[in-house]
Write a structure and sequence with these properties.
five-stranded parallel β-sheet, Rossmann fold, four-stranded parallel β-sheet, alpha/beta, 9 strands, 2 domains, 12 helices
Length: about 300
């Protein structure tokens, strides 16, 4: 994975299909213990948004590699007092070996990448969540042996996770069906990018019909109906999104061997029922664990560890 050393990951399309395949294979080797590279590098975490899985999985992954982690909480650094991103980026570039950022605006990531020479990782933005999708692809690969030709149906809000699923699925030859209410569909530019990447290798479908989207699908995926920063909209969204709940009835239209994924945190009884998330088809906990393994593979590759 030498070709990834020193690079940024701002969106899933920063990786080629071959690089994603190699990352997934490396993640499986790291997960099995067949590889155990060590480093003395320092990872910075600059999170403007709350986080459980991303923060902990990055931290544990780096510690297991032998590196160190610095939590750069914006509320106790000059970032929180309005220091320009350009200045912060150039200073952190002198201290750290790699930096993962969770932020609201994708533009912030682009500025960090422009002014810092160290690798910058998108740990979630308003536009994409590429680290989540690497873990999702790893989980699907573990369940089905390959992601190519698999049909994944995402049901809910056309948000950052949906965006990265569209692009990641298109890169990997996976069919991606998105079912959302009107006016909550994915960004049109992201959708066009996914369609161009898919070409004839996979099928990209966006619909308002959740049953049509999940019919015969092997992977059913959902996320909260109101993303971070939209909590004040949650109550008014519930009636609109109720037909898109992943429940046993909706699941009955999918492939009999279908798995269920959710990037978490989950609002049980809203976008997914207790019965489904705790059911035999749920792979949500494997998916959450795979955040650590996929991100460890990413760290190994971007840092050029051997």
């Amino acid at each position: 994975m030498e070709q990834l050393q020193g690079r940024d990951l701002l969106g899933i399309a920063d990786l080629s299909s071959e690089e994603i395949k190699n990352l997934l294979e490396l993640a499986q080797q790291l997960k099995s213990g067949k590889l155990a590279p060590k480093c003395q590098k320092i990872l910075g975490l600059l999170f403007y948004k709350a986080s459980t899985r991303t923060r902990v999985s990055f931290t544990v992954a780096m510690y297991q590699l032998g590196g160190q982690v610095i939590d750069l909480n914006p509320s106790v650094t000059q970032v929180g007092r309005g220091e320009p991103i350009e200045d912060t980026a150039r200073v952190l570039d002198r201290y750290l070996d790699i930096l993962a950022i969770r932020t609201f605006a994708q533009k912030d990531l682009e500025i960090f990448a422009q002014y810092a020479q160290i690798p910058i990782i998108n740990a979630l933005s308003d536009l994409e969540h590429p680290c989540q999708i690497l873990a999702d692809l790893l989980t699907i690969k573990e369940c089905f042996g390959s992601v190519e030709g698999i049909t994944l149906s995402y049901v809910g809000d056309g948000n950052n996770v949906a965006h990265s699923l569209l692009i990641g699925g298109a890169l990997m030859g996976m069919n991606v069906h998105i079912a959302t209410p009107a006016n909550h569909q994915p960004d049109s530019q992201i959708l066009q990018q996914a369609q161009e990447l898919a070409q004839n290798s996979s099928k990209i479908v966006v619909t308002q019909d959740p049953i049509a989207a999940v019919t015969e699908a092997q992977v059913i995926y959902t996320d909260v109906w109101a993303s971070m920063g939209q909590e004040n909209l949650a109550d008014q969204r519930i009636p609109l999104f109720q037909p898109y709940q992943v429940n046993q009835e909706l699941l009955s239209h999918a492939d009999s061997e279908a798995i269920v994924l959710h990037c978490l945190p989950a609002h049980r009884g809203e976008e997914i029922t207790e019965e489904v998330i705790e059911g035999k088809q749920s792979k949500v906990w494997d998916q959450a664990e795979n955040r650590m393994h996929a991100q460890k593979a990413l760290l190994v590759s971007l840092l050029g560890l051997s």
